[in-house]
Amino acid sequence: MSFWHKRAVLVTGATGFIGSHLAERLLAEGAQVRVLVRDPGKLIPALRDRVEVVRGDLRQPDRFAAATADCDAVFHVAAWLGEPNRREAAYAINVVATQQLAEAARTAGVRRFIGTSSIAVYGPILEGVVDETWPHSNVYLYSETKSLGERAVFATMTDRFEVTVIRPAEVYGPRGGSWTVTPVKLAQRGMPSLIGGGQGLAHPVYVENLVDAYLLAAQRAEAIGEAFTVCDADIPWREFYGRYAALAGKQARSLPVWLTWCGAFGAEIGAKIMRRPPVISRALLGFVLGRCTYSTTKAQRRLGWSPRCSLDEGFRRTAHWLREIKLIADH
Predict the structure, then answer these.
(1) Is the Cβ–Cβ distance between 55 and 41 less than 8 Å?
(2) What architecture is the 8-177+203-233+293-311 domain classified under in CATH?
(3) Angstrom distance (rounded) from CA 311 to CA 297
(4) Do 216 and 300 meet the contact criterion of CB atoms below 8 Å apart?
């Protein structure tokens, strides 16, 4: 019998990419799944009528008590991913709401709280092997608020309220957006998706492999009070985006480093004049130009996690979904 059989859990972000896969897996494992969503109509068909819905927004903390009541575990996946100049919204959702949800869960007697962060908290790193001890670098709004959100949620932990944080890398797979649909559309439109020939390293993680990490983190005592980096591999961007371009029957195009560097510099100057964070910056370029690798040794040793789905199989499943939604042609 599954560990999750008849256990009550809350999943936030269930209308989104990662959250929908997590909720679907929990249902398959026999869990009683509750979701906190603004619009239940946006739930995928596989979740509709199978989950308990609490209507609410992360900016409505008065809904958190109902959402967390009688739950064994909370998986907090929802986050702010919006415009780079929306500092107030980013802080309100990624920091304040995360802390308020954790506090509500603790008050409700929830046993385990699994928060979602990102490898973005480490900042752009050109070389080296990065593990969970790497210092945080708040180079842009998302990484800054994710780092603060981690700190806030760990501060709520007690002997009876156990907290773990997952730091995913570039998550791809069916229903994915930024790291799935977007690269295909860029290739189809003949738009550049690479910088400097794509020699920097990408760090993809297939969504179901990530779900494995969430479930293990909620079960293992070794996960309590810890954060875990989760990625499947470190591969050149030219290979990652090249696979999508091939699915679209195209070749991935690239921009020279000097051109994107100049564009970022101009964006930074404009941002200073407008007193807003830049849409793109030289620091952000470090994410795609860097050749660092991310260690998942901690997740392997403490969680017993490893990517069950290979890169080839992950792309095969992703391609099948892309054909289902008619984004790429059948072959």
Answers:
(1) no
(2) 3-Layer(aba) Sandwich (3.40)
(3) 18
(4) no
